[in-house]
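Lab notebook, page 48
Experiment: co-folding of the full assembly
Goal: obtain a model of how the components sit together before planning crosslinking
Operator: M.T.
Materials (sequences as entered):
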Amino acid sequence: MNLPPIPVPALLAAALPDHPRLLDSIVYQVNGLIVVFAALSLIWGMLEVMGFYFRRVHQAPAPAPAPAVVAVPASFEGITPEQVAAISAAVTVLFGTPHRIQAIVPADPELNWAQEGRRQIFASHRTR
Amino acid sequence: MIQGLLDFLSTTGFTLITWKMLVMWAVVGVLLWLAVAKNFEPLLLVPIAFGALIANLPTRGVITTELRPDGVYQSATFKIEGQTLDHTLPDGQGGHATRVLKVERIEGGLFDFISQGIKVELFPPLIFLGVGALTDFGPLIAMPRTLLLGAAAQMGLFVTFMGATLMGFTAKQAASIGIIGGADGPTAIFLTNKLAPELLGAVAVAAYSYMSLVPLIQPPIMRLLTTDKERKIRMKSLRKVSRIEKLLFALLVMIICILLVPDAAALIAMLMLGNFLRECAVTERLVQASQNEIINVLTIFLGTSVGITMHAENFLAPETLKIIVLGVVAFGISTASGVLVAKLMNVLTPNNPVNPLIGSAGVSAVPMAARVSHNEGQKYDRSNYLLMHAMGPNVAGVIGTAVAAGYFLSTLSH
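Observation: model returned without errors.
Model output:
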């Protein structure tokens, strides 16, 4: 919709001559800053309300506590309990639900080149 | 034979070269050096510099420049030849007389037509469509208080307005100069074309040059106003923002801004249309077009059209120098205001501080200003990642500058 000329700005324009005095300029710039701050503060308020609502709606359930590592099985030989704890925590965060880790095996460094090749091949295709 | 050669020479452009043109060639050289050798915003500066070079060559069939009675050179004026025909409709079809213009010939150079994109204010809103499609407002939605930094960084616009009026510019010219402080090229062009088209070349070049010089201008001001401890402040991670929030944001911000400043409607509407296309995730082809083809084509046309306004007779005037100086003042004040308001926010909310370096990103040079904040922060703490935090005030600055332009337009253009 095309708005007709607005009377209030017309009044403002009339109040601000082509070469305004210092006081006119100061009043004009303060008004301008008020308009800018009002517009952005309004958006700020709107975003706070929106954020408050969506944070409540989308609040994720608290992740299940990671099962405590009671004993280190034999298949974890050569790996420190701290490393087992870190890997267990990563698995818990990644899958969310409780999982049992049956073995932790160091990757064979000989396979790295082949793995990287496979990774690049898979990365070049778009999964559907 | 010699006479024939002399006659030919008189038709070449060599005889039309003036010393002012040579000076402008040097200016073009500097702009190209900054763009190509220093990599300062080459996407903008190369087309601008090329346009400026074309404007300062004795060309034919490229652009028409005429000296107006008020002493200002007006470019991009094409001629329409035709005749007006008076028609009187029969009584049964209304019976009133109408006057019809029958166009027989349109005469003009290439840029007489391309530059109409600026004159009829087509390019800036369409550039904003691309900017919207490229911008992720997520960091702003996740941390909405950074909107204050975007608002604070508009302080330079208004302070410079006052400075420009004190230096003898009219209110409309002063507003066009002040908007340089927003570091938003399309908005500066949009506003200047409406309020002070005679300053378009100088204002556009200043705005785009300062946008490209953000990494040089801002860091000294940021370092001056912050302490080592403040520069190392780590901010809390941003929450994840859902798609529906982003869609609502685009719609609501458009409605609020247009209701408040209807004169900025073209800019805001296109910005948010581009953003809505991006976030709705069902218009991939349109987003691709907005992010790539549309904005790239328009950047070439806009840049060259801006450059072509840098005609030596217009550009080499004392007013241009004043505009360049006032522009950097506006930019500096905007940067400083953002940083200082960030420090003020830390005083008011000490439990959830912001790194004051992100305050300088309140100027709307997206994403250069945010990158500068991030790089400055990394100089003092390599593992402090401020980029996404700085994007909040950065995109808030785009909205803030559009609102400020709307204020200037609604109060000065009627």
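Interpretation: Residues 70 and 89 of chain A are 14 Å apart (CA to CA).
Next step: discuss with group before ordering constructs.
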